[in-house]
Amino acid sequence: MSAATPALRSLLERLRQGWRASPLPGFFAWWGGELGALLPPRWRAALAGGADWHLLQQVDGDWRLRRAGRTEPLARWSDGLDAAAQQAALAAAWQGTDPEDRRLALLLPADAVLRRVLQLPVAARGKLRQVAGFEMDRQTPFSAAQVYHAVRELAQPAVAGRCAVELLVLRRDTLDPLLARLATLGITVDAVDLAQDAGRLGVDLLPPEQASHRTRPRLRLNLALAAACVLLVFLAMGSWLRNREAALAQMQAQVEAMRGEAQQVAGLRKQLQDDAGAAGFLAQRKAQRATVLGVLLDLTRRLPSSAWLERFSLDDSGQIGFQGQSPQAAKLLDLLKGSPLIDNANFQGSIQSDPSTGKERFYMVAQLHKPAAEHAASQPAASGSAP
Predict the structure, then answer these.
(1) What is the CATH number of domain 49-214?
(2) Which Gene3D superfamilies match (predicted)?
(3) Terminus of the chain with fewer CB atoms < 10 Å: N or C?
(4) Cα dihedral sign, 14-18-20-25
(5) pLDDT along the chain (387 residues), means of 10
(6) Which residue in 104, 114, 110 sits closest to 194, CA to CA?
(7) pTM over 0.70
(8) CATH class, range 292-377
(9) Domains 49-214 and 292-377 alike in fold
């Protein structure tokens, strides 16, 4: 497989930096740890995978190899041994690890690397390596052709519109002899980094043209399985959509079949509501309208015992007419004013004296009292009929 083009490497580097600068790696690491803690230890060991980083460091002419995150060395051998002996020592230390997951990082002493913290515009976040290369002459005493450099974004606060980054610079004449020595020994490194606690800092000072290109069969298998999963998901979604469409068509047919019955039921319901409303209206009107006996009872209570009625009438319009005799007929108007059933009582004709009884004969007309709602409803009709 040919090496990636510079444009593709630049794109991948921008994507990698954007991913590292986002909070997603920390979230997924925490989430994966929480999910892994729920599994039995044997399952966690079986599912554990990914890059297994080993750190190679030269101390006083000896090579020391240890696993990332641990301080005790897995192997230690002298640089004076021949290539076969050193490869054998490295292979013995790598026993029990998957060859596809083996990663080797060369750790350099801290005094071999120049580190500077810069404030760069946020717009340069996707191409920090290129911007740092342009700033090399101004920020360091070296030119870009004399050094290897790496840039990492820091989490510390920066001024508005800028981001804090750290520039790490390594002279070529320091790294090239080490890489040449390892090449003669048949040892290939995957990254060049600095030590930090029991691990590594997390940068790579290895020149891009010297980066190792590994064949990853397991990655190809995982990609094929992922593609198969995506295809199965689309097939399942398509099957689900077809089932939903079939169910929807069946439901629409049932709805069309029952629509006529629903219209008939709606018509019967409306007719029943209209009949019930009419019956309720009549019952309400009947309950609100005073009866003949009620009006007679009210007149009996209000008229004095010395007066009596000879004739009484109540028509459908609520017009009341009654005739009788009383010693003082003129006072009857005052007695009827507070009646809850009779309104607008008045004499019709003149009051005449009856010689046989010695009382005054009268004839009065009145209007049956209407409830407030009925009276308000009749007001517009009455006002509209006026000329």
Answers:
(1) 3.30.420
(2) 3.30.420.380
(3) C
(4) negative
(5) 62 73 80 82 66 83 85 84 84 77 86 88 80 86 89 83 88 89 86 86 84 68 87 93 92 86 86 80 66 82 85 84 87 83 85 85 86 53 42
(6) 110
(7) no
(8) alpha beta
(9) no
